[in-house]
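Quick note —
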Amino acid sequence: MSARNGRPPSRRTAWWLLLLVVAIPLAATLYVGLVLRPGGRPAYGELVQPQRPVPRLRLRTLDGRPFDLRRLDGYWLMLVAAPASCDRSCQQLLYAMRQFRLAAGVDEYRVARVWLITDDAPVNPGVLAPAAGTLMLRADPGQLRRWLPLRPGATLQGPMWLVDPLGNLMLRFDAGFDPVRALAVFSKLLYNTRSWKPRQLLPLPMPVQPGAAQSTPARNA
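Predicted structure written out below.
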Protein backbone atom coordinates (compact mmCIF):
# COMPACT_ATOMS: atom_id res chain seq x y z
CA MET A 1 0.00 0.00 0.00
CA SER A 2 1.44 3.44 -0.91
CA ALA A 3 1.71 6.44 1.40
CA ARG A 4 -1.08 8.08 -0.59
CA ASN A 5 -3.34 5.11 0.19
CA GLY A 6 -3.06 5.29 3.95
CA ARG A 7 0.42 4.10 4.90
CA PRO A 8 1.32 5.69 8.26
CA PRO A 9 4.07 8.35 8.14
CA SER A 10 7.63 7.33 8.91
CA ARG A 11 9.16 8.12 12.28
CA ARG A 12 11.27 10.87 10.70
CA THR A 13 8.17 12.50 9.17
CA ALA A 14 6.28 12.22 12.44
CA TRP A 15 9.20 13.80 14.31
CA TRP A 16 9.28 16.79 11.96
CA LEU A 17 5.53 17.23 12.25
CA LEU A 18 5.84 17.22 16.04
CA LEU A 19 8.66 19.77 15.86
CA LEU A 20 6.52 22.10 13.73
CA VAL A 21 3.58 21.78 16.12
CA VAL A 22 5.83 22.70 19.06
CA ALA A 23 7.95 25.37 17.37
CA ILE A 24 5.29 27.40 15.54
CA PRO A 25 3.50 28.61 18.70
CA LEU A 26 6.81 29.68 20.26
CA ALA A 27 7.97 31.47 17.12
CA ALA A 28 4.59 33.21 16.87
CA THR A 29 4.81 34.31 20.51
CA LEU A 30 8.25 35.78 19.98
CA TYR A 31 7.15 37.55 16.81
CA VAL A 32 4.05 39.07 18.39
CA GLY A 33 5.89 40.01 21.56
CA LEU A 34 8.83 41.71 19.84
CA VAL A 35 8.17 42.51 16.20
CA LEU A 36 4.55 43.60 16.08
CA ARG A 37 5.20 46.94 17.71
CA PRO A 38 5.11 50.47 16.30
CA GLY A 39 7.96 50.61 13.80
CA GLY A 40 8.40 46.81 13.97
CA ARG A 41 11.13 47.03 16.62
CA PRO A 42 11.61 45.49 20.07
CA ALA A 43 11.14 47.68 23.12
CA TYR A 44 14.92 47.73 23.60
CA GLY A 45 17.85 46.14 21.83
CA GLU A 46 18.40 45.25 18.17
CA LEU A 47 16.37 42.44 16.62
CA VAL A 48 18.55 40.08 14.56
CA GLN A 49 17.08 39.77 11.08
CA PRO A 50 17.15 37.45 9.28
CA GLN A 51 17.42 34.74 11.90
CA ARG A 52 20.84 33.21 12.43
CA PRO A 53 20.75 29.66 13.81
CA VAL A 54 23.59 28.61 16.08
CA PRO A 55 26.23 27.19 13.69
CA ARG A 56 28.77 24.46 14.28
CA LEU A 57 31.40 26.45 16.16
CA ARG A 58 34.84 25.25 17.19
CA LEU A 59 34.43 25.61 20.95
CA ARG A 60 36.30 24.03 23.83
CA THR A 61 35.85 24.05 27.56
CA LEU A 62 38.69 25.35 29.71
CA ASP A 63 39.90 21.79 30.26
CA GLY A 64 40.09 21.14 26.53
CA ARG A 65 36.90 19.22 25.76
CA PRO A 66 35.05 20.09 22.53
CA PHE A 67 31.60 21.58 23.10
CA ASP A 68 28.68 22.04 20.71
CA LEU A 69 26.60 25.08 21.67
CA ARG A 70 23.61 23.54 19.90
CA ARG A 71 23.29 20.99 22.70
CA LEU A 72 21.80 23.86 24.75
CA ASP A 73 18.73 24.17 22.49
CA GLY A 74 15.72 24.67 24.73
CA TYR A 75 17.47 27.24 26.93
CA TRP A 76 17.45 30.98 26.60
CA LEU A 77 21.14 31.73 26.09
CA MET A 78 22.87 34.95 27.11
CA LEU A 79 26.17 35.29 25.25
CA VAL A 80 29.12 37.63 25.65
CA ALA A 81 32.54 37.50 23.99
CA ALA A 82 35.76 38.86 25.46
CA PRO A 83 39.44 38.03 25.91
CA ALA A 84 40.50 35.92 28.87
CA SER A 85 41.95 39.00 30.62
CA CYS A 86 38.34 40.24 31.08
CA ASP A 87 38.71 43.89 32.06
CA ARG A 88 36.32 45.86 34.26
CA SER A 89 33.67 46.32 31.55
CA CYS A 90 33.80 42.60 30.75
CA GLN A 91 33.32 41.73 34.42
CA GLN A 92 30.35 44.10 34.57
CA LEU A 93 28.78 42.23 31.64
CA LEU A 94 29.28 38.88 33.34
CA TYR A 95 27.78 40.27 36.54
CA ALA A 96 24.78 41.68 34.62
CA MET A 97 24.12 38.25 33.09
CA ARG A 98 24.27 36.68 36.53
CA GLN A 99 21.71 39.19 37.84
CA PHE A 100 19.45 38.61 34.83
CA ARG A 101 19.35 34.90 35.59
CA LEU A 102 18.62 35.49 39.27
CA ALA A 103 15.84 37.90 38.32
CA ALA A 104 14.22 35.14 36.25
CA GLY A 105 12.96 33.59 39.50
CA VAL A 106 10.99 30.42 38.78
CA ASP A 107 12.21 30.54 35.17
CA GLU A 108 15.87 30.50 36.20
CA TYR A 109 16.25 26.89 35.08
CA ARG A 110 15.45 27.97 31.48
CA VAL A 111 18.40 30.38 31.28
CA ALA A 112 22.06 29.64 30.53
CA ARG A 113 25.00 32.08 30.48
CA VAL A 114 27.94 31.66 28.13
CA TRP A 115 31.23 33.55 27.96
CA LEU A 116 32.97 33.00 24.61
CA ILE A 117 36.67 33.54 25.31
CA THR A 118 38.37 34.97 22.24
CA ASP A 119 42.01 34.15 22.96
CA ASP A 120 44.18 31.47 24.57
CA ALA A 121 45.51 33.46 27.53
CA PRO A 122 44.95 32.32 31.14
CA VAL A 123 41.56 33.37 32.45
CA ASN A 124 41.63 36.31 34.84
CA PRO A 125 40.91 34.87 38.34
CA GLY A 126 39.07 38.12 39.11
CA VAL A 127 36.09 36.83 37.10
CA LEU A 128 35.43 34.07 39.63
CA ALA A 129 32.74 36.05 41.48
CA PRO A 130 30.96 37.92 38.66
CA ALA A 131 31.04 34.86 36.37
CA ALA A 132 29.95 32.28 38.95
CA GLY A 133 27.94 29.62 37.13
CA THR A 134 28.83 30.93 33.66
CA LEU A 135 29.87 28.40 31.03
CA MET A 136 33.30 29.52 29.74
CA LEU A 137 34.22 28.33 26.26
CA ARG A 138 37.30 29.02 24.16
CA ALA A 139 36.16 30.29 20.76
CA ASP A 140 37.61 31.22 17.38
CA PRO A 141 37.05 35.00 17.09
CA GLY A 142 36.93 34.77 13.29
CA GLN A 143 34.00 32.36 13.49
CA LEU A 144 32.26 34.56 16.02
CA ARG A 145 32.54 37.65 13.81
CA ARG A 146 30.93 35.75 10.95
CA TRP A 147 28.01 34.68 13.13
CA LEU A 148 27.42 37.47 15.63
CA PRO A 149 26.10 40.70 14.06
CA LEU A 150 27.98 43.86 15.04
CA ARG A 151 27.49 47.53 14.41
CA PRO A 152 30.03 48.98 11.95
CA GLY A 153 33.28 49.53 13.80
CA ALA A 154 32.15 47.60 16.90
CA THR A 155 34.20 44.84 18.51
CA LEU A 156 33.15 41.47 19.86
CA GLN A 157 33.65 42.63 23.43
CA GLY A 158 30.85 44.83 24.69
CA PRO A 159 27.51 43.56 23.34
CA MET A 160 25.32 40.85 24.83
CA TRP A 161 23.33 38.56 22.56
CA LEU A 162 20.23 36.46 23.25
CA VAL A 163 19.61 33.09 21.60
CA ASP A 164 16.03 31.82 21.78
CA PRO A 165 15.09 28.25 22.84
CA LEU A 166 14.80 27.22 19.18
CA GLY A 167 18.52 27.92 18.72
CA ASN A 168 18.21 31.20 16.79
CA LEU A 169 20.21 34.34 17.51
CA MET A 170 17.47 36.81 18.35
CA LEU A 171 18.54 40.05 20.04
CA ARG A 172 21.66 42.15 20.51
CA PHE A 173 22.19 44.66 23.28
CA ASP A 174 25.06 46.92 22.24
CA ALA A 175 28.03 47.91 24.38
CA GLY A 176 26.99 50.24 27.19
CA PHE A 177 23.40 49.00 27.18
CA ASP A 178 21.06 49.86 30.04
CA PRO A 179 20.78 46.68 32.17
CA VAL A 180 17.40 47.72 33.59
CA ARG A 181 15.80 48.16 30.15
CA ALA A 182 17.43 45.01 28.81
CA LEU A 183 16.19 43.04 31.80
CA ALA A 184 12.63 44.30 31.18
CA VAL A 185 12.75 42.92 27.62
CA PHE A 186 14.25 39.61 28.75
CA SER A 187 11.69 39.22 31.56
CA LYS A 188 8.87 39.77 29.07
CA LEU A 189 10.30 37.11 26.76
CA LEU A 190 10.50 34.62 29.61
CA TYR A 191 6.97 35.41 30.71
CA ASN A 192 5.48 35.21 27.20
CA THR A 193 7.08 31.82 26.57
CA ARG A 194 6.43 30.30 29.99
CA SER A 195 3.78 27.93 28.60
CA TRP A 196 6.23 26.52 26.04
CA LYS A 197 8.13 23.57 27.44
CA PRO A 198 10.91 21.79 25.54
CA ARG A 199 10.78 18.03 25.49
CA GLN A 200 14.06 17.86 27.36
CA LEU A 201 16.64 20.26 28.73
CA LEU A 202 20.08 18.71 28.85
CA PRO A 203 21.85 19.47 32.14
CA LEU A 204 24.23 22.40 31.92
CA PRO A 205 27.87 21.29 32.17
CA MET A 206 29.63 22.21 35.38
CA PRO A 207 31.72 25.32 34.66
CA VAL A 208 35.48 24.79 34.91
CA GLN A 209 36.94 27.36 37.27
CA PRO A 210 39.88 29.59 36.27
CA GLY A 211 43.09 27.90 37.32
CA ALA A 212 42.03 24.51 35.98
CA ALA A 213 43.77 23.10 32.91
CA GLN A 214 43.13 25.65 30.20
CA SER A 215 43.25 24.77 26.51
CA THR A 216 43.98 26.83 23.45
CA PRO A 217 41.20 27.77 21.02
CA ALA A 218 40.87 26.27 17.60
CA ARG A 219 42.35 28.44 14.85
CA ASN A 220 41.18 29.08 11.33
CA ALA A 221 42.65 26.66 8.82
